[in-house]
Amino acid sequence: MIKIYRSVFFFLIIFVSFSAFSVPPETSISLLYFDKFLHFTTFLVLSIFLDLSSSKPLLQNKLYILLLISYALLIEVVQYFLTYRDAEFLDFIFDLVGILVYVMFAPKLEIRHQI
């Protein structure tokens, strides 16, 4: 089962990277803070699948957490240099909050045992 979760995680990384670095559509949703919700949800989901794709819980894999944080930062750094994208520090903060929420609540919810 870990191989399936690992495959889903890598697919999500590719999808998120493509979405973050491609030209945004002209008819994008302009709801207030919807972008922040997407950042939070994206990194919450990435955290879940990264946790499930490992044999040890994510909290015991500090390197994985650091890599996920580095990926969030990398997205913003690359977007800073893209003329058709905007880098926002607040986006990075919401990425971190998504990771933090999972790291804080996953042990209490025992997600690894339910899925």
Attribute tags:
globular, about 75% helix, 5 helices, about 0% strand, mainly alpha, about 120 residues
Structure description:
This protein has 115 residues and is an all-alpha fold. The protein has one domain (2-11, 32-114). The chain is 73% helix and 0% strand. The protein starts with a helix and ends with a helix.
Offer a concise description of the structure:
Helices cover 73% and strands 0% of the residues. It is mostly helical and 115 residues long.
Number of domains: 1
Helix percent reads: over 70%
Order of helices and strands: HHHHH
Coarse structural class: mainly alpha
Number of helices: 5
Distance between the termini: 10 Å
Q: What's the total count of β strands?
A: 0
**Tertiary shape:** globular
Query: How big is the Rg?
Result: 15 Å
State which percent range the strand residues make up: under 5%
Summarize the helices and strands and which ones pair or pack.
Elements: H1 2-21, H2 34-52, H3 62-81, H4 89-109, H5 111-114
